[in-house]
Structures are given as structure tokens and as C-alpha cells.
Amino acid sequence: MFNRAVSRLSRKRPPSEINDSESHPSSSHQTLKGTPKWATSLENLLEDPEGVKRFREFLKKEFSEENVLFWLACEEFKKTQGKKQMQEKAKEIYMTFLSSKASSQVNVEGQSRLNETILDTPHPLMFQKLQDQIFSLMKYDSYSRFLKSDIFLNHKKSEEQEENSPEAQTAAKRASRIYNT
């Protein structure tokens, strides 16, 4: 029994595949899309390209778009293969966001700043500490204001109008008939 439990735990499955005892999806968040999903967490917002687009639009108005751009660049950097490409991307991130001469400098704590010499020996998680700092800054500062912003509220309103439109309801009824027969 213990081995079976360990085996079950060791299998990595996305949350959408984890079911409760009645074999129904265990989370109502799985069906959420758009603004309702964005409102549940910054993580969900950053997983949705449209959410990122709207969040960037908001941050641009707040003069802090560099935060999400840095976070996205770090996520992309983690996927980089090959030492040469990694060195090039690391230098690009450093010059764009971290250098004292950076065009889009992010606001990170002084002791967290990287020394330029580290760029010679890059590794996928070299920016992790700084990325976590920026994520926390966005999560506890910008994200809550974004959820109250006109950009978010107007997008939410347009989604609701689209959802309640006669065309959407008719399509839903057609789908319901198709799948419930």
C-alpha cells in the first residue's frame, strides 16, 4: 500500500488531470478563462498571453513595464539550450534590465545585483533570485492595482457582454445539444 501511494505521488500530473474521489475534475478553476482566471492569481495571469498583454498595457501606464518584461525574459532564458546561446541571452538580459546603463532597468535590491563576470558562466537559474524579487514586487504591488484598473475592468465587462450575447448563447445551446444527445 505504501509503495502504491509513493508511486501515485511520484507521477507528475498537471492539476487538470487530478480528480477527486468521484472522478470529476477537482477544481472549478480549470473551467475559468480570461479575467476570472486572471483574478485568481498573478501566476494564472502570466500564463495567459492575453493576460500578459493587458498587464503590460497597465504597467506601461504606471511606468513599470520593465518588471514584467524582465520576468518574461527570465522565463525564456530558463529554456535556453547551449552555452553560447545562454551567454548571449544572459548578456542581453543584463544589459537591458540589470546594468547601471540599462535601457529598462528593474528596481532590485543592491546586494542582489549580479556582477558582470557571472555572464561568462551562465546557468538557467542565474537570474532566479532577481526574478523572484520582481515577481513579489508585481504580486504585492502592481497586480492588486491591475485588478482594480480600467484596463482589467473594461476587458472583464467586454468578456461578460460577449458571453451573454445572443450569438454566444446560441452557440452554447448548439454545443449542449450536440454533446448531450
Automatic annotation (TrEMBL):
Gene designation: RGS10
Domain RGS: 41-152
Coiled coil location: none
Polar residues bias (residue ranges): 24-33
Disordered: annotated span: 1-40, 157-181
Protein name (database record): Regulator of G-protein signaling 10
Pfam families per record: RGS
Organism: Apteryx mantelli (North Island brown kiwi)
Alphabetically ordered keywords of this record: GTPase activation
